[in-house]
Design goal:
This protein is of the alpha/beta class. The protein folds into 2 domains: about 30-265, TIM Barrel; about 285-370, no CATH class. The protein is about 40% helix and about 20% strand. It has 15 helices and 16 strands. Strands 4-5-6-10-11-12-13-14 form an 8-stranded parallel beta barrel, surrounded by 6 helices. Strands 1-2-3 form a 3-stranded antiparallel sheet. Helix 9 (about 220-230) links the parallel strand 12 (about 210-215) and strand 13. It is globular and about 60 Å long. About 50% of the residues are buried.
Amino acid sequence: MSLSFRVAARDGLARAGVLETPHGAAETPLFMAVGTAASVKGMTSGQLRLSGARMLLANAYHLAIRPGAEAVAARGGLARFMGWDGPTLTDSGGYQVFSLARRRRITPDGVVFNNHIDGRELFLGPERAVEIQAAIGADIQMCLDVCPPARADREGTAEALALTHAWAERARRAWNPGGGQALFGIVQGGLYEDFRRESAARLAGLDLPGYAVGGVAVGEETPDIRRVVSLTAPLLPEDKPRYLMGVGTPADIVHAAASGIDMFDCVMPTRHARHGQAFTRGGTLNLRNARFADDDRPIEEGCDCETCRTVSRAYLRHLARLDEIMAPVWLTIHNVRFYLRLLEDLRRAIRAGRLEEFRRAFAAAEARGADPGAEA
């Protein structure tokens, strides 16, 4: 078995469905916690499962460097290696083409990196990216692409797009459809609507199992992100899962789901936790702030996560101020559960045909703020 996708309900452009993989099923829209190096920072695999996670993301570039794709393969593949019993997805290393721009050289054949650990060369071409991800054994692997920076000019974006399309075709030829892994193409094109339309059409012609919208989490302003997502999502095949890479804030996710996106990932829940910040429906709380020193409430009333059921804002502020290791752990548990609850609520709203009502209530909660009347 490889991958299948079924849309069970629609509300406008939004879809609620089921993604079936060799490692189990996941309901969509879904959120994947980011475990770049086969570990979601601050949570065990058991805690992730209890929080409602059904699919995790890792990064092929990082795993190819440490411990090596072959080492992961020798230990039964990514899921078994990290003690996870559900589906996984690996990014090919395309994001590192953007984020490690000073450490790489792009050629028509692929990308030569001087890796960020010891400077040794790592070559990633579209075929090699498929080979690495096949060894890692993720249920979904991504085509290698070139992600241009935000505000790239038309010439630079066109060059990146030409390589992205050529590499997707080569990846399609290198991929084994019967090998139990699905291959997703990545739509690029920067902020240029004609490029986005061209990219969606070119990739749809490859008849891949799924498609992603890339290049909208690399420094763009929120209105630009939402414009590109609103344009691109409906251009992708109706019967295939649609994945928005690296986005984003809770409000961005609500908007994207309403535009027809099915899959999300973002480092914000774990990264914010490491900086003492917690997500709520009314916005983020910085629990290092003095105003929480005597606050005995949970992070968010009504949240069912272990953190909110166990400890107070005052205690979390105490831990965060001391840089105790448990501060980011407690906050990560809450933040990841917050994102997963958000997606659960979105699925229910779509199935019930009440998405617009949900969006209005969500916007009203954000407008009220996390602590109405509290001092900043």
